[in-house]
Amino acid sequence: MTSQRALVTGGAGFLGSHLCDALLAEGWRVVAIDNLLTGRLANLAHLKNNPAFEFLEKDICQPFDPGPIDFVFHFASPASPIDYTIHGIPTLKVGSLGTFHTLDVTHKYNAKFLVSSTSECYGDPLEHPQKETYWGNVNSIGPRSVYDEAKRFTEAVTMAYHRYHKVDTRIVRIFNTYGPRLQLNDGRVISNFMKQALRGEPLTVYGTGSQTRSFCYVADEIDGFLRLAKSDEHLPVNIGNPNEFTILECAREVLKVTGSNSEIIYHPLPPDDPKQRQPDITKARQLLGWEPKIQLAEGLKLSLEYFKKAVAEEVTAAK
Ligand code: UDP
Questions:
Q1: In which band, very low, low, confident or very high, does the pLDDT at 2 lie, cut at 50, 70 and 90?
Q2: CB-based contact 120:147 (threshold 8 Å)
Q3: For 40-49, what is each residue's pLDDT tens digit?
Q4: Of 43, 173, 291, 304, which is the most exposed, with the fewest CB atoms less than 10 Å away?
Q5: Are the C-beta atoms of residues 66 and 7 closer than 8 Å to each other?
Q6: pLDDT at 247 > cutoff 60
Q7: Rounded to the nearest 10 degrees, how much is the dihedral formed by the CA atoms of 220, 223, 227, 230?
Q8: Residue 317, pLDDT score
Q9: Mean pLDDT (whole number) for 108-125
Q10: Which of 189, 199, 203 is the best mutation target for the ligand 1 pocket, counting ligand atoms within 8 Å of the beta carbon and taking the most?
């Protein structure tokens, strides 16, 4: 029997490329699509000679047809606050047009579908921790709205294809994830702090650093995606690590892991920066038997070699 074919949109991104690896390891043939706006071919370089892997440089905001496919993982979108602020309109387009085109491919080939959504759907949450049943507190016209509303629309389109066309869909709400391949300059807190600590520069905490995030190591996150892919759950499922840290605590963890003496300095808090984020993962525990295994200190250690290499490459490139 020939192996099944999976499509990963956003396949050259941080999560998309890890997902390609995991699917190949499970015996899938994998087609990755990316327009390389924020994705990087370097994330897929190790797959270049793998006969089970194919890369298509394509913008899914235009209709596309990758041929018969069994499972579609829709992961295309800028995802860090800096990336989606720079690329606001492409972010809205990939969440809307890109999602329609990807669901059309799914429907045409009668494939299964899983889409990456986000804890941003909860906005600056008034309910804590966040359960999937919480509808969120999102500013529809603020600077983060290009991403938050695109993803909320993505969820709406996905549920519509499920309800009207009976497409077999799944929605994962992802909370802050980190690990190797996180882009050094994407402005996310872990990339910034690791880069700053390794360069001996001050760690830039925004606001007082009392805002919280809950960080999930990439291997745990991918394990959650694969379990959800095998389930029949159509409503959103939170996949994230419920262990919550203030940003100041996160800075201290990074200093510890890197052994850096960098000082901590304070910058203004960006507008609409959510005050707290913690997933309630009861649903994932009960439905998928999933929970994260790697806590922040260990995950940062596992990411250290990657960040050291990325910082060194940046120094070389600048010469
Ligand atoms: N943050 C920070 N310093 C940085 C980058 C981010 O204090 O150099 C804060 C940011 O204000 C937010 C949190 O860290 O409160 C997480 O930011 P990130 O951009 O990683 O993702 P978000 O969860 O806000 O989408």
A1: low
A2: yes
A3: 999 999 999 9
A4: 291
A5: yes
A6: yes
A7: 160
A8: 83
A9: 98
A10: 189
**Looking at ligand 1, which residue's alpha carbon is closest to its atom 19?**
188
147-163 residue pLDDT tens: 999 999 999 999 999 99
Q: Quick one: pLDDT at residue 197? A: 98
* 204, pLDDT greater than 60: yes
φ, ψ at 261 (rounded to 5°): -100, 15
Residue nearest to atom 24 of ligand 1 (CA): 273
In the chain the domains, ranked by start, together with CATH numbers, are 5-314 (3.40.50.720)
Distance (angstroms) between ligand 1 centre and the Cα of 28 equals 35
Q: Which pTM value belongs to this model?
A: 0.97
Query: Looking at residues 48-77, what average pLDDT do you find?
Result: 98
Whether 147 is a known active-site residue: answer yes
Question: Are β-strands 212-214 and 244-246 bridged in parallel, bridged antiparallel, or unpaired?
Answer: antiparallel
- Atom of ligand 1 lying closest to residue 209 CA: 7
Cα separation of 118 and 56, whole Å? 25
Mean per-residue pLDDT, 259-269: 98
How much distance in Å is there from the Cα of 198 to the middle of ligand 1? 18
Atom of ligand 1 nearest to the CA of 81: 19
Neighbours of 78 (CB within 10 A): 25
